[in-house]
Amino acid sequence: MNSARAISSALIGSALALLPACASDNNAPNNKPAPRLGLDVGRSASVDGVELRWWTANDNADAVTTALAALVEPDSVLPARLAARWDESGLRIARLKREALGELLETAPPVSQYARDWKGWMGAWLPVFRGRAIDRRAPFTIDNRPRMLGPGAPRILMRAWPAPTAQGPVVRLDLALQFVDEGAPRANDQSAGLIPATAAPVNAGDIIHELTAELALDPAYLYILTCESPAVVWNNNRAPAAADQSARTAAGPGPAAASPTTIGQLLFAFSLADSAQKRRIIVLIVPELAPDFALLPPRNPQ
Fold first, then answer.
1. 227: Cβ–Cβ under 8 A, 6 or more apart, which residues?
2. From CA 147, how far away is CA 164, in angstroms rounded?
3. Distance CA 41, CA 224 (A)
4. How far is the C-alpha of 9 from the C-alpha of 2, rounded, in Å?
5. Is the peptide bond before 151 cis (omega within 30 degrees of 0)?
6. C-alpha to C-alpha distance for 299 and 116, rounded to whole angstroms
7. What is the pLDDT of residues 143-181, one digit of tens each?
8. Would you call 124 helix, strand, or coil by DSSP?
9. CA dihedral sign, ordered 185, 270, 139, 79
10. Sign of the CA dihedral 96, 97, 103, 105?
């Protein structure tokens, strides 16, 4: 855990810290405090909402695939048909036990910052993460079909609120993929990362509807969002399938970088300019519901 403790945490996007408290009341603020900075992910007794974290890990020899395959839960977060679309598009989402985060940070440690952004409840669609930009039109595989995208950058939109289920309250999170046509990207505007308050509005680009997901997040778990080669299977009971190295190379900030083949690779994978060093971005979704959470306040005794 020494390497994990050595990571410096940063809270990004303070202007976006607190957003509407539920989907049905977009004017009600989330007044509960953001969670403490640090690497701990124990269940909070005082906050409700969603926190996002992300870091970039060294992915040489498919190190991230090996780390995640050993730790994530084997059950699918998505319905089978949608999970197949995500896999074909190079996208993955999986559950991780909260206590396993420390081990993940040791086996796939950040090569730079470990960023955190407290979102609270997001009653309306909000851009939260932007992928790397491309300066030309390029073919991508989406739902096992070719599609031309670019120039511009993909980004992730989210909205989140508490919702009841037969098993108890959950964090309902809707996730959409959007491609924003930005024209030719500026040299200093190609980095992936969490999106600041100055981002283009949600109606500024085309939604990739085939990949939109409606999730019910169990606050007992963390959720990993990243990319993966379509042929690779994650299962913590066996070694991951070998990845196709040629399919894992994404567009990077240099002329030698190859075109990505999936939208997931453009969002979360890249190679360093003039280098064989590969990197993969890991986004962590942290759902929070206080143990005494209730959708309605208790009724006063009569």
1. 90, 91, 92, 250, 262, 264, 265, 267, 268, 269, 280, 281
2. 38
3. 14
4. 15
5. yes
6. 36
7. 777 888 888 889 999 999 999 888 888 999 999 999 987
8. strand
9. negative
10. positive
CA 11 to each of CA 59, 235, 283: distance values in angstroms, whole numbers, following the listed order: 25, 32, 14
HSE-CB of 262 using CA atoms within 13 angstroms: 26
Residue appearing with tokens 């084997």? 74
- Mean pLDDT for the stretch of residues 219-225: 96
Count the neighbouring beta carbons within 10 Å of the beta carbon of residue 186. 10
Q: CA-to-CA distance for 149 and 267, rounded, in angstroms?
A: 13
119 contacts 19 by C-beta, under 8 angstroms: yes
Nearest to 141 by CA among 67, 229, 272: 229
What's the CA gap between 119 and 57, in Å, rounded? 23
Give the chain's length.
302
**pLDDT at site 91:** 95
Look up residue 37 and give its two tokens: 């900075």
Contact predicate 30/21, CB 8 Å: yes
For 49: left if phi > 0, alpha if psi spans -120 to 50, otherwise beta; the answer is left
- Calculate Rg over the CA atoms of the chain: 19
Among 194, 169, 174, CA closest to 23? 174
Q: Would you state the structure tokens that stand for residue 53, as one six-digit string?
A: 């974290």
Answer yes or no: are the C-beta atoms of 288 and 48 closer than 8 Å. Answer: yes
Give the Cα-Cα-Cα angle 149, 205, 197 (nearest 5 degrees).
Answer: 125
**How far apart, in whole angstroms, are the C-alpha atoms of residue 229 and residue 89?**
9
The 10s digit of each residue's pLDDT in 44-94 is 556 899 999 999 999 999 999 999 999 999 999 999 999 999 999 999 999
